[in-house]
């Protein structure tokens, strides 16, 4: 089974981004509903196949649509990217790839090669 539950640390990061209206969602169900969205995209299952532990699938789907349309997921990604760029959470593989790319560019410059990527021409 694919992990759909958030760790407490992950939830602390996500929770402030989720709006709570006057009439719901109730804060105690918010985490389960967000985990339902995670379940949907990690498993590739249909909304109607969602396990009951996340709440009614229609409710989770409606929350997903509101969060998507309200820019919640975009804000989460942008904030995560800023943290990664600031050095708070860059994974070892990512850091290695960045270092290798920088080293290759330095080698090409030293050897007098054109450092521009031919796949992305600068002229229209």
From TrEMBL:
Upper classification of the organism: Bacteria, Bacillati, Actinomycetota, Actinomycetes, Pseudonocardiales
Cross-referenced Pfam families: DUF4096
Segments of this protein annotated with the region Disordered: 102-124
InterPro entries: IS402-like_dom, Transposase_6_like
Domain of life: Bacteria
Insertion element IS402-like domain mapped to chain residues: 6-76
Protein name: Transposase
């Amino acid at each position: 089974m694919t992990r759909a539950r958030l760790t407490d640390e992950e939830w602390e990061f996500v929770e402030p981004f989720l709006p709570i209206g006057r009439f719901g969602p109730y804060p105690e169900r918010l985490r389960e509903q967000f985990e339902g969205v995670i379940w949907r995209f990690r498993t590739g299952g249909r909304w109607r196949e969602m396990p009951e532990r996340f709440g009614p699938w229609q409710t989770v789907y409606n929350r997903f649509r509101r969060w998507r349309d309200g820019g919640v997921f975009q804000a989460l990604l942008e904030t995560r990217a800023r943290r990664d760029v600031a050095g708070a959470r860059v994974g070892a593989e990512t850091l290695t790839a960045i270092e290798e790319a920088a080293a290759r560019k330095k080698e090409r410059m030293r050897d007098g090669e054109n450092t521009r990527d031919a796949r992305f021409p600068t002229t229209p």
